[in-house]
Design goal:
This protein is α+β, with helices and mostly antiparallel strands. The protein has three domains: about 5-180, no CATH class; about 185-250; about 350-445, no CATH class. Helices cover about 45% and strands about 15% of the residues. The strands form five sheets. The chain has a five-stranded antiparallel sheet. A three-stranded antiparallel sheet has the order 10-11-12, with no helix packed on it. The protein has a two-stranded antiparallel sheet with strand order 1-2. The longest helix is centred in the first third of the chain and has 39 residues, at about 25-65. The chain is globular. This is DUF222 domain-containing protein. It holds the Pfam family DUF222. InterPro entries: DUF222 (IPR003870), HNH_nuc (IPR003615).
């Protein structure tokens, strides 16, 4: 569709920023940085204004279409997420922030639009006052905002928090009680095949956990029982031992799932095929650890063998590795996993697991949420098959909003509009939003494969460790 003059002007601004030449003088470079920071803050305020206007116009449109009032605007954040290339959850938080700036924090919004404060400072004010009434928020905005240009993010947060406590001390106590009910534990992948385990606890509990680990780790070091481990390493090992009930951290029984090529597992192309025939696989490429992401093939092989140092297991160690191997076929042109049975209503069993392995995370572009639902892209009621081709792993949010008026999803294979070279058939979904914007989502290839011209298919292995296999730290 043709662009408006306002959009064209923004495109021109982007091009000007792309071509910006740093100043020759260092003092001018600093001035440029200051001006660019103001521009970034002003752009954040503009995004907020456009987002709130878009929300209102979408609600009006859906009202005219007869959408029930409680469902109007539910997909607005998802459309914003696609346009801004961010996750839907982030877009929802941003939209809530934008509405707060418009309705309750107008002075803060003006400072942000003028580039006098950063977006992080404005978000700090919003975060610390979000639980208050509109009148209380507006009063704090008038009180605190005038000092914001001279405050850091931490100082702005503290100032808004103090004002919120004074405005409604009883609410602060209620929030603390509610927050205690939100305690939880979650994991997040870290670089170099590490993993962060995070616990949200009450302040007293969190400090007690950390202080106990530190005290006992210092005692082990003082007694000489820690060997050459550092204080942080001993604390980490104690954390694992006490949570799992194991005598040592390396004795934790695990059941995990890996996706890797036969070349990665055995160090050669399957069936003796030479490179250049069909899908090429790299013995030292990246395997996929479900629930974590890509890991080096050497680490995957070591996990199978259960070797202590996670490095370079010997063939004998691999032979002794207790692993259950399931063959999954790979498209010889694209290196992607392909098909299974079709005539069922529910995605379960092998089909469900297949979709999980193929898609890994929600198929909505820019959404990194874990797969919660297995969705018919062409609805079952419209004749859509329960197949890996017509199925997609999605988050609950996308599964709901894709059924709202104006949304369509369809599977395409090798379409020119998806920029797929002729003859290749990646599993690609075309998503059209109510505004007519079109987005594509293509399933990632199997780790370690390089698409080539079609040849006889190779295999991947899905390695599932039995509970008795022990993975060393």
């Amino acid at each position: 569709m043709p662009k408006s003059q306002a959009t064209t002007d923004l495109d021109q601004m982007v091009e000007e920023m792309r071509m910006l030449v740093p100043a020759g003088d260092d003092a001018d470079k600093v001035a440029q940085l200051a001006a660019l920071e103001k521009l970034q803050a002003s752009a954040a305020a503009a995004i907020a204004r456009v987002s709130t206007e878009f929300l209102e116009s979408q609600r009006d449109r859906q009202r005219d279409l007869g959408v029930p009032s409680h469902r109007r605007g539910r997909d607005t954040a998802d459309q914003i997420a696609l346009a801004r290339r961010i996750s839907p959850s982030q877009a929802s938080r941003d939209l809530k922030f934008a509405r707060a700036l418009r309705d309750d924090l107008p002075v803060t919004a003006d400072l942000l639009a003028a580039g006098e404060i950063s977006e992080r400072v404005a978000r700090a004010v919003h975060r610390e006052t979000d639980h208050l009434s509109a009148d209380q928020r507006s009063a704090i905005d008038r009180e605190v905002a005038r000092r914001l240009p001279g405050l850091s993010v931490k100082e702005a947060s503290a100032a808004a928090k103090r004002a919120a406590y004074q405005a409604d001390p009883a609410s602060a106590v209620k929030r603390a009680a509610k927050a205690a009910k939100d305690r939880r534990v979650w994991t997040k992948p870290a670089p170099d095949t590490m993993c962060t385990v995070t616990a949200l606890l009450t302040a007293a509990q969190g400090i007690a956990v950390w202080a106990t680990l530190r005290r006992d780790a210092q005692a082990l070091i003082a007694s000489g029982a820690a060997g050459d481990r550092t204080l942080d390493q001993v604390m980490a090992d104690l954390f694992v031992e006490r949570l799992t009930g194991q005598s040592v951290a390396s004795a934790v029984p695990v059941e995990i799932h890996l996706v890797m090529t036969l070349a990665m597992l055995f160090g050669a192309q399957p069936d003796g095929a030479a490179y250049g025939q069909g899908v090429e696989t790299d013995p030292d490429g990246a395997a996929w650890l479900e629930g974590y992401g890509p890991i080096p093939a050497a680490v995957a092989r070591a996990a199978i063998a259960g070797v202590p140092d996670l490095l370079g297991p010997t063939p004998q160690e691999l032979d002794r590795g207790q692993a259950w191997i399931r063959r999954l076929f790979v498209d010889p042109a694209t290196g992607q996993l392909i098909s299974a049975d079709k005539r069922r209503r529910r995605f379960d069993g092998a089909v469900r697991r297949f979709i999980n392995l193929r898609d890994r995370v929600c198929r909505m572009p820019f959404c990194d949420a874990p797969i919660r639902d297995h969705d018919h892209l062409v609805p079952y009621r419209d004749g859509g098959e329960t197949s890996v081709d017509n199925g997609a792993g999605v988050c609950q949010r996308f599964n709901q909003i894709k059924n709202l008026p104006g949304w369509t999803t369809e599977v395409i294979h090798g379409a020119a509009e998806a920029d797929a070279p002729p003859g290749e058939h990646p599993h690609t979904i075309r998503i059209t939003t109510p505004t007519g914007a079109v987005y594509y989502s293509t399933a990632p290839p199997v780790p370690g494969t390089r698409p080539a011209r079609p040849k006889p298919p190779t295999s991947t292995v899905d390695v599932q460790f039995p509970s008795g296999l022990r993975l060393a730290s």
